[in-house]
Design goal:
alpha+beta, 2 domains, two-stranded antiparallel ribbon, 4 helices, elongated
Length: about 120
């Protein structure tokens, strides 16, 4: 599914992890357009914004040829591990009052497990 629409960049917010939240406004949309946009929530993709009236044929071809199947999840593997460990800590802190202590304990265990498999 794709979204190609005229829009105006109306703002952005910097986030703690150095990423940005971008805000765009479009003209009026049909109910079908709104359904299509809603269906794309939380999916990974690319955004191309050009502050000019028309896209060239070459730009459209470049957009169409993007490899958008790079990841099933836009998070890095380390972000995914950290998020999963955080959710586990919320459910069972195993006596760790702070997440950073829980995280260090769990990652040390993983490191030691794989170090033990290395040839001597």
């Amino acid at each position: 599914m794709k979204l190609l629409t005229a829009c105006q960049l109306v703002g952005y917010n910097p986030r703690k992890d150095k990423s940005l939240t971008l805000r765009f406004e479009t003209g009026e949309k049909t109910p079908q357009d709104v359904m299509n946009i809603h269906a794309m929530l939380d999916t990974f993709g690319y955004i191309f914004f050009k502050a000019e009236a028309q896209l060239t044929k070459e730009e459209i071809a470049d957009i169409e040829n993007l490899d958008t199947d790079l990841y099933d999840n836009p998070k890095t593997q380390s972000q995914r591990i950290r998020n999963v460990l955080f959710m586990n800590w919320k459910n069972e802190d195993e006596g760790h009052k702070e997440f950073k202590d829980y995280y260090k304990n769990k990652t040390d265990k993983v490191i030691e497990f794989y170090k033990s498999k290395l040839p001597e």
